[in-house]
Amino acid sequence: MRTQVCIIGGGPSGLLLSQLLHRKGIDTVVLERRSRDYVLSRIRAGVLEWGTVELLREAGVGARMDREGFPHEGTYLALQNRGFRVDFKATTGKQVMVYGQTEVTADLYAARDAMDGVVIDEAEGVTPHALDSDAPFVTWHKDGTEHRIDCDFVIGCDGFHGISRPSIPNSVLREFERVYPFGWLGILSETPPVDDELIYANHPRGFALCSMRNENLSRYYIQCDVNDSLDAWSDRAFWDELKRRIPGEAAERLVTGPSIEKSIAPLRSFVAEPMRWGRLLLCGDAAHIVPPTGAKGLNLAASDVHYAYHALARHYLDGDGEGLERYSEQALSRVWKAIRFSWWFTTLMHRFPDQTEFEQRIQEAELEALEASTAAQTVMAENYVGLPY
Ligand code: APR
Ligand code: PHB
Questions:
Q1: What is the spatial distance between Cα 21 and Cα 19, in angstroms, rounded to a whole number?
Q2: 218-252 pLDDT, tens per residue?
Q3: Ligand 2: which atom is nearest the Cα of residue 213?
Q4: What is the dihedral of CA 366, 371, 372, 378, to 10 degrees?
């Protein structure tokens, strides 16, 4: 087999890049380790920056998002049960779109199928070879048969636990990491959202977040111990704890119900450099992880895809390699700003196990300063709605 661009990983990064390149007449093959059902059942975050919205539209996958997604012009931040609103529209002129990543992935698969895009699922033992040569190739096996595909470029879209990043030699790869000493317990419930905007709450008992998917599907999170067992968190215990941490009027309005999904996620910031080595480019979670507090995971994947897409299109359509040369530097410059924002917002909103009274007062003072200052809110909003590409 031969293709121009071999993409490892059929999550949102891999599918979106494949879709964009195909529309420019550039041939791709996507190799995904899991089954399609597994990929489509993963529940992830739900806030799209406007740049992501526009990229999805450009890829021809924006129709359902535009019909079913919810544009949000602001968000609430709460401190000890009292909330205030940050107005994205008034401060930056921009908004975000609330639309689940699970739906984005489903739309991308549907679009790939409609164009007869090649997505090979349940590909085992995917291994890239000769990445520092002009003739890279990838091998895998499926149904007991060994396969090989030759290509011009390999794109590592295979997430944090993928094979692509470790294919860069140790002497070249640098990794930067912070692991936060807590997790998020999240539930999905078929209940109306408590508010029509998101509420991010800082509370002495720990952080809480009220989010949503649609009029009758809510997503809520509370900070927990990352080693907590899910069995220790009955639905009742979750709702009681959430109510304690959010502003009183929201707690009174909150409609509770059985959870249809419940999970605990660790929080981590991670960056790998460089994002290109020879004929390998990394995109999305393969190169970086953010804690979910700023909702940047999928959006950073989209900005990497934007840069990789334009670099590859320039190479194939204009014979100009400069985009590829600059890919790592360009992508990382935006990645680090989102890493900084997610770290700042996480640090501001969570209770750390060893937090001193001093640090507690600093958090409170910073939230009060944010409430009082349009300039500070503008900086927060600029980052939340997404920095320019
Ligand atoms: N071979 C083939 N596929 C692999 C391999 C491998 N060795 N390792 C992982 N994969 C697949 C995974 O099964 C998964 O479907 O790569 C895909 C990676 O998808 P994601 O983890 O969703 O990563 P990405 O596409 O970069 O999506 C952006 O940002 O913060 C997150 O929640 C956000 O998942 C979103 C991500
Ligand atoms: C979500 O809806 O799942 C969500 C929203 C905002 C975040 C994180 C997760 O910051």
A1: 6
A2: 999 999 999 999 999 999 999 999 999 999 999 99
A3: 2
A4: 90
Q: Sorting pLDDT into bands at 50, 70 and 90, what band is 44? A: confident
DSSP string, 20-74: HHHHTT--EEEE-SS-HHHHHH-----EE-HHHHHHHHHTT--HHHHHH-EEE-E
Nearest residue CA, atom 2 of ligand 2?
46
200 is catalytic: yes
Segment 7-13 shows an average pLDDT of 98
Which tokens hold the place of 295? Answer: 């909702």
Q: Which tens digits make up the pLDDT trace of 301-317?
A: 999 999 999 999 999 99
Q: What is the pLDDT of residue 259?
A: 97
Q: Facing residues of 282 across strands? A: 156
- Angle at CA 217, nearest 5°, toward 215 and 219? 125
Strand bridging mode 137-142 / 259-273: unpaired
292 is catalytic: yes
Q: Give the position, in ligand 2's atom list, of the atom nearest the Cα of 98.
A: 2
Distance CA 53, CA 59 (A): 10
From CA 388, how far away is CA 337, in angstroms rounded? 11
| Ligand 2 residue neighbourhood (C-beta within 6 Å) | 45-47, 198, 209, 211, 219, 292-295
Provide CB contacts within 8 A for 88, sequence distance 6+.
72, 73, 74, 75, 94, 95, 96, 381, 384, 385
Residue whose Cα lies nearest atom 15 of ligand 1: it is 11
Q: How far is the CA of 355 from the CAs of 118, 340, 368, in angstroms?
A: 51, 20, 19
| Cα 296 from Cα 68, distance rounded (Å) | 21
Using a cut of 0.90, tell me whether the model's pTM lies above it.
yes
Measured from the Cα of 290, ligand 1's closest atom is: 30
- What pLDDT shows up at residue 43? 81
Check if 384 is active-site: yes
- Distance separating alpha carbons of residues 280 and 23, to the nearest angstrom: 22
Specify whether 274 is catalytic.
no
CA of 366 relative to ligand 2 center, distance in Å: 22
